Each structure stands twice: as C-alpha cells, then as structure tokens.
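SECTION: protein entry
WANTED: fold as tokens:
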Amino acid sequence: MRESVFENNIPSYYETDDSILVLGDSFEILRKMKSECFDMIFADPPYFLSNNGITCQGGKMVSVNKGSWDKLNENATTIEEKHEFNRRWIRMCRRVLKPNGTIWISGTLHNIYSIGMALEQEGYKILNNITWQKTNPPPNLACKCFTHSTETILWAKKDEKAKHYFNYEKMKELNNGKQMKDVWTGSLTKPSEKTEGRHPTQKPRYLLEIIVLASTQEGDLVLDPFCGSGTTGVEAVRLGRKFVGIDNCEEYMEITKRRLEKVKNEEL
C-alpha cells in the first residue's frame, strides 16, 4: 500500500497491511502523496469554533475551545484567510483523489458555507448535502437562539463528468427497503466509543459506517487528512478497506492507533 501512496519515504507513526498513520502537517504530507491514489476521502476539518465561549457537556458548563488547531487566529486571521485555508486543503485533496473518487466533508454553520464554495471553486461537483440530526444535542445555554442540533456533511465527486460509485442497494437495505434520504438521525458519540481516549469532535461510528459503505468497495483506499481519534480508519478497516490517516497531534495518533489495533484483534 505504501508504494501506491507516497512519492517519498515518509516515516509512518503506525503501519500495518491495511492502515498507515502519519504524524505531521496535512499540507506537507499531502504534497508528498502520489496523484490520484485514493478512492474516497473523509475530512472533518477545523470548524474554527474555539472562541472562548461556553457550552454544556454532561450537564456542566465547559469551554467550547477544542485546541489551538481549531482557533481562527492560529490558521487564519480573517474570514478571507479562513476560506483560503479551506480552498488550499480541498485543492490538495483533489489532486490525490482518483478520477471517479469522492470526498465527504463534515462541518457546522461556522465553516460549511466556506467549504461548499471552496468545493465548487476547486472544480468538484456536490452530490448531496447530508444533514446529521443529533437526538441528544447539548442545550443552548445563552437562550438567545435555537438549539444547535445538526451538522452538515457535503458529498462531492471530483468533477461534473466523474462516474462516482454509490451503493444504492446497500443504502436501501440499511433503510428498511426504502430509499435513504439526506437526513440521518442519531445520537452523539457514545462513551463506549471513547474508551481509548477523548477527542472533542469525535464522530460516531454509525455515521462513518454509512459513508464507507455508500461510496467505497472492499479493498478501496480511504484517506482522512484530519483523522483525529480515527473513526474513519476504524470503520474503513473493519469493513475491509485500506486507510491512511494524517494528524498533527501525537495524542490523537495514539488514540487512533489503539482503536485500529482493537479492530485488527476483532475487539470492536
């Protein structure tokens, strides 16, 4: 797998026959990858939510700050620079995506409009606007607007002419024999999925299971350029795909490594 992905000898943080984790800056690593090698990309990029506000978690008031990687002034100082940040990594992902490959990007109102515009500006064709409706969102403590209970996941193909893969029959099967709609309802990530460590924006496994099954086939190669605690990799490997994950935080790399090892040992 390594030979099909990397142009140069990039050291891996963790590597098996079906997964490679790379610790480092996504922009730097993406530059060193071969063109058109991934069948699917899932990205959960910075939302730029960390503004010193507060939210509710487990019935307690806590800071909304996720880390330096999520602060606007760490990656960009203006709205224009935030948009350029998104355009840049989306452009680099397009280079490593196969001609008929697809990309999924998760976000909230804080970044998803920039993401959508960036996808169109970089030549992608948006296929779906998935709304993830959370059944147990944290309450709105300020009581000055509606409770934020959804996130958006954009699904796009590389360009207008690309013949993307969509497992329509599997999605219909998962939806009790009916066409699956673009609103997916479910809970936030369960505590049982955080036993190897916590990540502030960890996605639940059922979301990535649907995404992997919908847009890839067994043996396909999946990339997550901001892999965090590794849910993309967990579901990709569990479902017989191959995975490459990048993150600049060693703590999160360790969480992902432990979770992937559990998948290999069939403990998940």
The first helix runs from residue 2 to 5. The radius of gyration is 18 Å.
